[in-house]
Structures are given as structure tokens and as C-alpha cells.
């Protein structure tokens, strides 16, 4: 059974508006809501700085909703130590009554790192940090005592108490890199997410993920596979939501008639998607989301 969710951007909006959007998304029958982790808007412009912080809003999401699974797609390993993230997501899991999911990625928005004076190393180093960080998270979230000795992170008989409500709080990896990201997902992740690629590219990456799973002796079906897609029935809506990156995301944006949108979703499901998330950004068009919900008979 395919899960349908909404991935809500934290840019160009406020806490009250977000709470209203989250409530409506839950009312419409979606099974997942997630936040992103940015300090600036996602356009990459150095003056696009209106964006709320992710951990705080993830906690607000936990307290605003009562049914949906609440995720993060994805926290950047370069912004917070994995032990700090483990404590935060454990607290969020308690706030939500056991509905939290932990997403982690290598980070990419250099404009944010530069603005805040955070190191932005080469991609190999960021991937190394991701691979070490997810092992720390698995230990702290799934085990009672964790010792880890890496180049970037160290844990010594570390405890994470009180424990999450979930015995195995799911850990997601975000990104489409075929040599490292998907290999890390195959070894350590419970879920994998990639945004804004067409169904044929999604199917290809699932094949790569399955290959990495086979190499480490793991059943690829253990990993939930999710695609983030935009929803814009008009060109104006596409430009309002994505601005300067509209052409980059266009291959992964649902558009056209209701029948065309449903057909496109079917293509993603046929390609191997266990979950389809609508990536929603301000200005929020809830009427379009309601039409989507009705077309899929979610509520």
C-alpha cells in the first residue's frame, strides 16, 4: 500500500500558518508530514533568508498533529552533532506519542554554511561524516549503550535516556548519489528519499539501491522508498513555489489534468515508490492539495 505524504517547506511562512497547514493536511487523510532542514530559503540566493529552524518546527509538528507520521527530510549532518540530533528526535518522538522519523543527509546549501561560518568541506568529507553520523544515530536510537570511534564523531558508552517511544525509530537517508549515498542507505537506513526526479530516473536509482543492498546481504524491501514531487497545476504556481530552481525541479513536478496527475503518480508507484510526498511551499495552495486528496480518495 502506497503512503501519501506532504513535505512542507519552512521558508517564507510563519509558525501559525504552518500549524494551520499541518492540521489541514492531517484532516485530508495524508499519512506523513515532514519538515526540511534549512537556515535560508531553498533558492540558493544569499538574500533569501526567511526560513524557520527545523528541530523546533519538527517539535511543533509533533504537538500540532495526532495521527500522521512526522519526519525530517533531511537534517544536515554538518549542522548538528548526531548525538544532539538523537536527543532531539527522541524528545520529538515522546512529544508525538511515537510517530517520529529521523532523516539525515550530507548537506548541500553552501550559502547557509558560508553565512553562518560553518565548515563546508568537499563532498567526500561530507559523505564520510554522513556515514559516521548515521552509525551514531543508529546506536543512540536503537541501542541502550553506544561506543563509536570515528574520524569525525566519537561516542564513549553513550546513553540516550529516556528512550524513544518506538523500539526502532526509523532512520532515513536523503539523496540520490549512486556511489556513496545509496550505498550508505543500503547499509544503515530504514527509509530512503530523493526529490524531483522523473519516474524512470527513480526506477534506475532503486535498481542501484537494490544492488548495494545485495552487496551487503540485505533485502532491499526492508528500506521504504519515497519520492518527493511538486504539485503545480499552472506555470504560475510552479514559479511561485520554486522560483529560480523551477527548471531544475520541473521533471519531478505533477501538473496537468487530474487524470494526468494520477497517471504520473502511478508511474512512480510502478517504478518502486512505497511513498509519494507532495513538496509544498508557501504560498500554500491548500485547494490544490484538497483536489489531490479527493482524486486519491484519501479522506
**Unreliable stretches:** none
Strand content: 15-25%
CATH level-1 class? Alpha Beta
Task: Spell out the CATH superfamily.
Answer: Luciferase-like domain
The overall pLDDT, averaged over residues, is 94
Shape: globular
Main beta sheet, described? 10 strands, parallel
User: Count the helices. How many?
Assistant: 11
Domain tally: 1
The separation of the N and C termini measures 16 Å
Overall number of strands = 12
Approximate helicity band: 40-55%
CATH architecture: Alpha-Beta Barrel
Radius of gyration: 18 Å
How does the helix and strand content classify structurally? alpha/beta
Helix-strand sequence: EHEHEEHEHHEEEHEHEHHEHEH
Q: What is the fold-level CATH name, i.e. the topology?
A: TIM Barrel
Overview of this protein structure:
By secondary structure, the chain is of the alpha/beta class. Helices cover 42% and strands 18% of the residues. The protein has helices at residues 15-27, 54-64, 82-96, 110-116, 123-142, 181-188, 199-215, 235-242, 246-249, 258-271, 286-295; strands at residues 3-8, 32-35, 69-72, 75-76, 102-105, 146-149, 154-158, 171-174, 191-195, 224-231, 253-254, 275-280. Strands 1, 2, 3, 4, 5, 8, 9, 10, 11 and 12 form a ten-stranded parallel beta sheet that branches. It has a two-stranded antiparallel ribbon with strand order 6-7. β4 (75-76), α3 (82-96) and β5 (102-105) form a beta-alpha-beta unit. The longest helix is centred in the middle third of the chain and has 20 residues, at 123-142. The chain is globular. 44% of the residues are buried.
Amino acid at each position: 500500500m502506497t503512503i501519501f505524504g506532504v513535505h512542507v517547506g519552512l521558508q517564507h511562512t510563519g509558525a501559525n500558518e504552518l500549524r494551520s497547514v499541518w492540521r489541514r493536511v492531517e484532516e485530508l487523510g495524508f499519512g506523513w508530514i515532514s519538515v526540511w532542514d534549512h537556515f535560508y530559503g531553498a533558492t540558493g540566493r544569499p538574500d533569501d533568508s526567511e526560513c524557520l529552524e527545523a528541530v523546533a518546527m519538527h517539535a511543533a509538528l509533533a504537538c500540532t498533529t495526532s495521527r500522521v507520521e512526522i519526519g525530517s527530510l533531511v537534517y544536515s549532518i554538518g549542522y548538528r552533532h548526531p548525538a544532539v540530533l538523537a536527543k532531539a528526535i527522541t524528545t520529538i518522538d515522546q512529544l508525538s506519542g511515537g510517530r517520529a522519523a529521523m532523516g539525515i543527509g550530507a548537506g548541500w546549501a553552501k550559502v547557509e554554511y558560508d553565512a553562518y561560518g560553518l565548515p563546508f568541506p568537499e563532498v567526500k568529507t561530507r559523505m564520510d561524516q554522513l556515514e559516521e553520523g548515521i552509525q551514531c544515530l543508529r546506536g543512540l536510537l536503537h541501542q541502550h549503550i553506544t561506543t563509536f570511534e570515528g574520524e569525525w564523531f566519537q561516542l564513549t558508552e553513550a546513553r540516550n535516556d529516556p528512550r524513544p517511544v518506538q523500539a526502532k525509530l526509523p532512520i532515513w537517508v536523503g539523496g540520490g548519489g549512486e556511489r556513496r549515498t545509496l550505498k550508505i542507505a543500503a547499509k544503515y537506513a530504514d527509509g530512503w528519499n530523493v526529490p524531483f526526479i522523473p519516474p524512470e530516473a527513480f526506477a534506475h536509482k532503486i535498481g542501484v539501491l537494490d544492488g548495494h543492498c545485495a552487496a551487503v546481504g540485505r533485502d532491499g524491501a526492508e528500506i521504504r522508498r519515497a519520492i518527493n514531487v511538486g504539485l503545480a497545476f499552472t506555470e504560475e504556481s510552479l514559479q511561485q513555489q520554486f522560483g529560480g530552481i523551477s527548471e531544475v525541479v520541473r521533471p519531478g513536478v505533477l501538473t496537468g489534468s487530474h487524470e494526468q496527475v494520477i497517471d504520473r503518480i502511478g508511474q512512480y508507484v510502478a517504478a518502486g515508490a512505497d511513498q509519494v510526498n507532495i513538496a509544498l511551499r508557501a504560498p500554500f495552495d491548500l485547494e490544490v492539495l484538497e483536489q489531490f486528496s479527493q482524486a486519491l480518495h484519501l479522506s
